[in-house]
Amino acid sequence: MKAAALPVIEWVTPEQAEFYESVLGFARTLPRDVLSRDRSETFSREAWNRCAEFGIQGMPIPAEFGGGGADVVTTMLGLEALGYGCDDGGLVFSINAHMWTSEVPIWTFGTADQRDRWLAGLCSGKHIGCHTITEPEAGSDAFGMKSIARPVPGGFVLSGSKTFITNAPVADLLIVFARSGEAPGAKGLSAFVVDADAAGLRIAERIETITPHPLATVDFDGVRVPVSQRLGAPGEGFKVAMATLDIFRATVGAAALGFARRALDESIERAATRKLFGAPLGDLQLTQSALADSATEVDAAALLVYRAAWQKDRGATRITREAAMAKMFATEAAQRVVDRAVQLHGAFGVTKGVKVEELYREIRALRIYEGATEVQKIVIAREALKNRPGKPALAAE
Q: What pTM value is reported for the model?
């Protein structure tokens, strides 16, 4: 099948286009016997290591800390290309979460010692990271967080439980958010870097989902953490979490865009080669309508995803609205594009092992991860109301 067309965005430089093609070519070198599709596993460590050797895991981190020094647009292009070409969507999402929820918070908020201690191992792929926000009774509503960080001489003691934590079954370190009590609400949360083998930390059995992803529940029973492993200032945990989610939500959109672009190309190939009633499937007007809708939604998603990345590269401190729009639209559009691809493939579209059937399972979870679509709508609406011209602030603000 012909290589995916480059995203239709005017700010892709020749160097970025070359990078996109190089990642796409690399992703296609990962054969199925290397990529785990067994529900008893999380993802193939061999595939993870190959990605690390290529430099995928360290893309957004400066070279001085072991990374590739790529800007956000370039990193998003790499994620989209990986999503398009790699036949294990769980691996793509694990790499994405690893980069943006462990590496980037340490690079952004960490001290010099914390950066030196952890970033090189994370960028090289030797160590795997994750972050823990979601709790059994607190998902998108971080204010409902109940995990406690109790101050003790020299540090803190962590107690509580987190669930649906991406990469937890394979993590070497965790970014943990808990109530440290400096102030009520959001100003009373702190972030900590915790080693996965810390005494009192237990990673429960992996949670099986619609497609293999490394998810698990993590319990903290009196886990002692030295003050040197607090990430950011006291009470800045919510700030760390929201800054992370700002960009991570947009990167989920980039991965979804890769899935959607692959589904569109599979649809085009099917329409051009499948004969029906003596003519190609693509000659039917209903098929043309489906392809037109999918092509338009892919391009629209690309524009929203890369707008968010472009604004971050321009120095925007927060891209809450833009990231929420990118995540919401790209994942919802990708679901529709993949669904049309399955329909155009007929019985083959629901046959195990066919690419569009895999994409159908892979894309569904992305509409929920890192804030479900309905949460993104709330975020977008609140940002619109907050920034309306000539109006007083909302009472909730």
A: 0.91
